[in-house]
């Protein structure tokens, strides 16, 4: 299978590397020239849970205009630039190309639909953990399941083919008939963790060590749950608040991606996480004051960098 990955940061590089190891023809697309050059010259260096090795049967580029249409395009850029990234690289797609988003937050499917026909789009979530250590070097920090699915919940031949390719690369993958529920399920966890850790400079586990942050986590997640219920979303777990606290404890030492973004003076994905809850709530008549406060505070911190 010919696969392009738009956004070869930590997660994009991880999936690209593992898929290449599994025998797929992989092209990483990223704006970081040094990262791209290192991979092309020396290969992708991967260390972590599955040992240290260098993956050499992989290509990278900052300009894929020469490339032919792919069988599969995986979008791993920040949600804030989804539309720009996909539209700039639409030559990677033709009528037979499947585009998969494994990004965080809400709205990515709709942004991809501005360029790609809805019938060519599938979605999913990932619980893999990875960090980018240096140009051409990543640390596979944690193994987790990948879920992929058609937007209409069917089990199509292409989903089965992609599942096979992912599994061949060592990615434990499940086909879901409720992928939108999974996306919302992951969103609620991010709603409870990301903004609070970024504002307080706390690690994930510390959120449940202080009664004040634990209460705010509960309120933010409960608001998001009310919005999800109003949308008719079927979540993949029973108690979102308990589930989010469980994730806090399981990833206790982690610095959330939003906290890392602020520390590195990068734009966050607040608009697609807590901000998306606020936006959806306004559409549905569901009040979300805590998420509004968290969104505004993160926005001010971004502006003040």
TrEMBL record:
UniProt-listed SUPFAM superfamilies: 6-phosphogluconate dehydrogenase C-terminal domain-like (SSF48179), NAD(P)-binding Rossmann-fold domains (SSF51735)
InterPro entries cross-referenced by the UniProt entry:
6-PGluconate_DH-like_C_sf, 6PGD_dom2, ApbA, Ketopantoate_reductase, KPA_reductase, KPR_N, NAD(P)-bd_dom_sf
Q: Which GO terms describe its cellular component?
A: cytoplasm
The enzyme's E.C. designation: 1.1.1.169
Give the keywords, sorted. Answer: NADP, Oxidoreductase, Pantothenate biosynthesis
Q: What does this protein do?
A: Catalyzes the NADPH-dependent reduction of ketopantoate into pantoic acid.
The molecule here is called: 2-dehydropantoate 2-reductase
């Amino acid at each position: 299978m010919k696969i392009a990955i738009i956004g070869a940061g930590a997660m994009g590089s991880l999936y690209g590397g593992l898929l290449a190891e599994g025998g797929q023809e992989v092209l990483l697309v990223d704006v970081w020239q040094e990262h791209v050059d290192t991979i092309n010259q020396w290969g992708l260096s991967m260390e972590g849970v599955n040992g240290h090795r260098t993956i050499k049967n992989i290509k990278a580029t900052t300009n894929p205009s020469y490339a032919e249409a792919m069988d599969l395009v995986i979008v791993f850029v920040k949600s804030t630039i989804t539309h720009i990234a996909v539209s700039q690289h639409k030559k990677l797609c033709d009528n037979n190309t499947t585009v998969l988003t494994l990004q965080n937050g809400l709205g990515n499917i709709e942004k991809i639909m501005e360029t790609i026909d809805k019938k060519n789009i599938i979605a999913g979530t990932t619980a893999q953990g990875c960090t980018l250590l240096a140009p051409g070097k990543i640390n596979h920090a944690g193994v987790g399941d990948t879920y992929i699915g058609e937007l209409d919940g069917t089990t199509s031949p292409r989903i089965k083919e992609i599942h096979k390719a992912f599994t061949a690369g060592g990615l434990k993958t499940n086909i879901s008939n409720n992928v939108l529920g999974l996306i919302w399920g992951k969103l609620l966890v991010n709603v409870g963790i990301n903004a609070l850790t970024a504002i307080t400079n706390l690690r994930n586990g510390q959120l449940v060590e202080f009664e004040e942050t634990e209460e705010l986590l509960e309120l933010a997640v409960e608001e998001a749950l009310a919005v999800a219920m109003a949308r008719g979303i079927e979540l993949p777990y029973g108690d979102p608040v308990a589930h989010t606290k469980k994730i806090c404890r399981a990833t206790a030492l982690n610095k959330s991606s939003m906290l890392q973004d602020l520390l590195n003076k990068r734009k966050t994905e607040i608009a697609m996480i807590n901000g998306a809850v606020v936006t959806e709530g306004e559409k549905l008549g569901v009040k979300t004051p805590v998420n509004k406060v968290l969104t505004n505070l993160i926005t001010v911190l971004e502006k003040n960098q």
